Amino acid sequence: MSHSRFSFLVVLGLTSVVCFAAAKEGSPLDELPSYIRRVIEFGQRADFSHDGKRVLFLEKTFGDVYEVELETGKLRAMTHHYYHEGYTRALYLANGDILLSGAKKFDAANPRASRSGANAELWVLKKDLSGPPVQLGEHCSEGPAVSRRRMRLAWTMQDEGLIFIGDIVYVAGEPKLVNKSKILDAKDMPFECNLETQNFRPPDEKELVFSAYMKRYRFCEVMGLNLETGKIVNYSNAPREYDEPEGIFPDGKHTLVECDRGNHRGTQHIDIYKLALDGSGRMERLTKFANYKGYKASNPVVSDDGRYMAFQYAKYGDMAGVGRGILLFDFEEYEKAKEAEASDLGSNARRPQTDEELRYWLSNMVWYHGFSNDEIRVATGLTQEEITTALERFDIRRDNKPRRKTGAPLLVLPYPGGRHPRLGFLDGAVNPQRETKVSVFCPWDGESYVVVDVPEAVFSNLGLVYLAHTHEPFPTVWQKQGIDLEKLEWNRRDDGTLDMERELPNGIAFGARVIPGTDAVRMELWLKNGTGEKLTDLKVQNCVMTGYAKGFEEQTNENKVFADPYVACRSKDGDKWIITAWENCVNPWANPDVPCFHSDPQFADCKPGETVRLVGWVWFYEGTDIERELARKRKDGLAAIIKGTGPATARCGYDVHFFVGSTIEVGRCYLNFPASVEPNSAASLEAVYCSTLS
Question: How many other C-beta atoms are found inside a 10 Å radius of the C-beta of residue 329?
Fold first, then answer.
């Protein structure tokens, strides 16, 4: 069979157990987890009272302000006792009075103007509601930041690109703004952006956390400004992601973030994440509203005791800040739910049995995968105390990771489990097993990696004989018989090679070997027929998951090229590529929801007692001409195999795709090894020749 050169075709999986999953239908409100409850069916932009018993919120953008009692649900109208043009913000001040932002005049034909710095003004409403609010004489773009400890606020004038700070004092009982000073000019930022104040960072409030919007608000970074030194820190450091800080935790160690990491589709598809303010960029997703078609979660705040988060939900197309109801997130109940989930996942936890193994897995998880203690707990079954003690004993911290040597082979590590390797379509991969998964770290970024599942699934004429996770619609032949397969581990070799093998209950055995090179990783699969009958239709799924490779997290197929047998995935910035290919590929495809891509091969039919083999690769390419790069790989395909390593057989055949004119042909490459060659070594070849198959 021949193909036209670089015909980029999307080929759907013929036997794929990893199916395409669209956004969920229905409403997330109908499937709220135990730790989230709905407080009120309308409203937006919540703020906690200092005692945590009440939530202040806007009825709507340019609407009235209300307060709801969390225990009883009782509502109190805060701005009904006077006429006004509606408000865009309402925040408790340190003394219990309320800071409002709103315009003197509202134009329904041009509503956005009332949110601009040219029209929106700051006001103070006394907590006893004894009269209308008092103007502070300052305009404000979008939301101000309010201190929880003192009568201080910071605000932005976006059109001018300026952030100011000031204090509120009371003169004869009337609030006034004093000590106004400019603290930041957008011109002093390390990149072009618009600014918005968010929170003073507790507990000492010596830092202001603010938003830096880029590319017309398509992207956003979480920034910090030291109010004493003027130093600016980028805490999210994800320039192709929307990360807008909102509520901050009372210990100052984390902030809540509106983020599109789960889909990279912008502000209309955001959920709420928890970002560590230690420079690590570690994020934990808290809500999953964007998993439902047309929904998003936004504008979270944290109570002063850190127990609760109030937030709102909205729908696709709603203007930024618009909410359709207030919800309450209980962090204590959330931790209990995580504990229960960890117990459910405990069947896949692998507790290290020796100090040597404990040290290895902790360094694997912390230094290279950036795991949190919760993720380590799920992966190992260790208690939090055991984890903390071991990390201190071995002196394993994120900031003392060993440096890679220049020119060293690509880093390939066993994937430790404990963190799902997918970003989405998780119900299609329940309880993922780690013994077939390896992390291949990108050469341009020591923090980013792809998870390669090799093999993810093995089919035959007998049915689905192996699956590296559970997917209820597709049980294996062993699950149908109630047989649990033994947990295995990768063998770790001194040269960085990983290998594993498994024998199934019916005598079929298979194995994989992963060999790192300086710019590519070679993968080998073998299958031995230990049954008494011929095995046919031996299709294999090998999955490359990109959710933890920076720039490749986007849940789309628009960044992929399909040129059988090659499948290439492009980074968000367009100048980096991850490529995979397997010989005898029968199914190049991708799943945008995971996100992942495949070049799935098929073994030759296998008689009893025989062994069949396949070879595949993962490459990394920096550049923009992917067609030329794939053409080069096609041209050098034979050489790539010659330079690699091969099984220690007297004569071993590989199917090779190569160009003949403008078409792709398949040939058989025979490698003759000397008898003294050690198994799977990189010895010289005695002879190589290639004959075209009919």
Answer: 23
